[in-house]
Design a protein that fits this description.
Elements (H helix, E strand, L loop, with lengths): L3 E2 H8 L2 E3 L7 E2 L15 E3 L12 H7 L3 E4 L7 E3 L3 H15 L5 E6 L4 H11 L4 E3 L9 H7 L7 E5 L7 H8 L4 E4 L7 H4 L2 H8 L1 H4 L6 E5 L3 H4 L8 E6 L6 E8 L4 E8 L2 E10 L2 H15 L4 H10 L9 E4 L5 E5 L5 H15 L6 E5 L9 H14 L4 E5 L2 H9 L7 E4 L2 H11 L5 E5 L6 H8 L5
Parallel strand pairs: 4-5, 5-6, 7-9, 7-10, 8-9, 10-11, 11-12, 12-13, 17-21, 18-19, 18-21, 19-20
Antiparallel strand pairs: 1-3, 2-6, 13-14, 14-15, 16-17
Helix pairs in contact: 3-5, 4-11, 11-12, 13-14, 14-15, 16-17
Length: 460
């Protein structure tokens, strides 16, 4: 973060100083909302959640080196007192972006699935000094937090933007108006909260409406809900996908035994070969979006292809692939799940074992926020998994897992419903053997990340 004195921060966010001995004391490091992550010079955000109140940790944050805390009430340590910590932090992010970071290009990314992988690819393909959203910090907390990670040397700021309601992305783009906006797809993630794909598309399209004059909208030509967003922006439009009329496209896609795609990248300026290090055929589209952004930054097709081929996964629990010493491969994709991403992950598992002397094992948990479609969506995923001819399907949890088993019905002995991860781990320890490939996939809150981590240890 660009060094900034407390009295100036207070002025920007509309707050007042409390218990501050030196109003000129400077915040020099990115903001944090976890007191355990404080470094000397941080600004600590005292956020109030359902189970904890950050104000209780303000003293610990100051003792660890934070310059001050952003609070809604005095807490006896150096602080800036505001009416609303989140809104004040958003104002700070907006100010930092337009004051010390005016030269940085803002690349904003949204979509029902693939946001994080696309963000990771873009961040590695772009030239210069790039700051990108850590993990999936894509909301009203994570976006300004990412801005505080940048400084005057930043050339590109790559920001993931998520939404649970219409208007969420519009609010984020007010903090950080994009120079380039990318939409990956419109699926069924959070469909229960949105009330339908049309509403999801309405929300996601806010990101292209906010593109700065002279900017660029990068749209998935293979998704009808996304492609039509060209009518919602005054920006230039570049499309990507497998469609022949896409501006940036892939031809000759092949998937190797590790589930990684290779293809020929085709642009208006030429073509070059790409061999991705990311697992799953869905990464073809994600990498094409990254190619479109890199092309806008002035890279030629050969350099774009080379950088895409060198890029590595950066975010945990997204097709994170590890082979144990005994030869069992674990794919940890348990960060989140919706019907769209479930199918892609299952396709990757099937591709990795097809024609190989290896068994495929899918360990699946519930998909959250599907509303009235929850039962039918889980049953459909069960049918889909069964139709791929996988060797084992282990469904973990309550009703949703039972619905998936019902969908997989008729496949004798293949689909097993177990109550929890302990039971699943016990079964897996009994059946796994060298060469098996295990996919662990579920929404957050199902705790299958812990199961995947436990599986990294060989059978006892």
């Amino acid at each position: 973060m660009q060094p900034m004195p407390l009295n100036r921060i207070a002025n920007v966010v509309g707050g007042r100083l409390a218990d501050v001995l030196d109003p000129e004391a400077q915040v020099t490091q990115p903001a944090v909302f976890d007191s355990r992550e404080v470094t000397t010079g941080s600004l600590f955000l005292a956020l109030e959640g359902k189970h904890t109140d950050g104000h209780a940790y303000a003293e610990a944050a100051i003792n660890k080196g934070a310059t001050a805390a952003l609070v809604t009430r005095p807490v006896g340590v150096p602080a800036i007192v505001v009416d609303d910590v989140l809104r004040a932090f958003g104002r700070l992010g907006h100010f930092l972006l337009h004051d010390g970071l005016a030269a940085a290009k803002v690349v904003a990314i949204t979509g029902s699935a693939g946001k994080t992988s696309t963000k990771d690819l873009i961040a590695q393909v772009l030239p210069g000094n790039v700051v990108s959203t850590p993990q999936s910090f894509n909301n009203e907390i994570g976006l300004p937090l990412t801005i505080t990670m940048a400084d005057r040397h930043t050339d590109h700021l790559v920001l993931e933007m998520g939404a649970r309601h219409i208007g969420d992305i519009r609010d984020l783009t007010r903090i950080a108006p994009p120079d380039i906006s990318v939409v990956t797809n419109v699926g069924t993630a959070h469909v229960g909260e949105f009330g339908g794909r049309e509403n999801i598309a309405e929300a996601k399209g806010e990101i292209v409406e906010a593109v700065q004059p002279g900017g660029l909208a990068v749209l998935n030509a293979d998704d009808d809900f996304v492609d039509v967003m060209r009518n919602r922006t005054q920006a230039r439009v570049v499309t990507y996908g497998l469609a022949e009329d896409a501006t940036i496209r892939a031809t000759g896609v092949e998937i190797d035994g590790q589930g990684r795609a290779s293809y020929t990248l085709v642009t208006p300026e030429g073509r070059a070969g790409v061999r991705l290090q990311f697992v799953g055929d869905v990464q073809v589209h994600n990498s094409l979006a990254a190619a479109a952004v890199a092309r806008e930054a002035g890279l030629d097709v050969e350099r774009i292809a080379a950088r895409l081929s060198e890029a590595l996964p950066r975010s945990r629990w997204r097709m994170e692939t590890t082979t144990r010493p005994d030869g069992v491969t674990i794919i940890n994709d348990a960060y989140n799940a919706n019907p769209h991403s479930m199918r892609h992950s299952l396709d990757a598992l099937a591709a990795m074992t097809r024609g190989q002397d290896q068994r495929s094992v899918a360990v699946l948990g519930r998909m959250n926020e599907l509303g009235d479609d929850a039962r039918s969506a889980h049953e459909e995923i069960g049918r889909y998994a069964a139709g791929l001819g996988l060797d084992h399907i282990i469904l973990v949890g309550g009703d949703e897992a039972g619905w998936m088993q019902q969908g997989a019905g008729g496949v004798d002995g293949m689909a097993v419903h177990l109550p929890d991860q302990d039971a699943a781990l016990e079964l897996l320890h009994r059946i796994l053997r060298a060469g098996d490939v295990v996919l662990v996939k579920a929404s957050r809150g199902v705790q299958l990340q812990q199961l995947a981590d436990a599986l990294l240890q060989p059978n006892p």
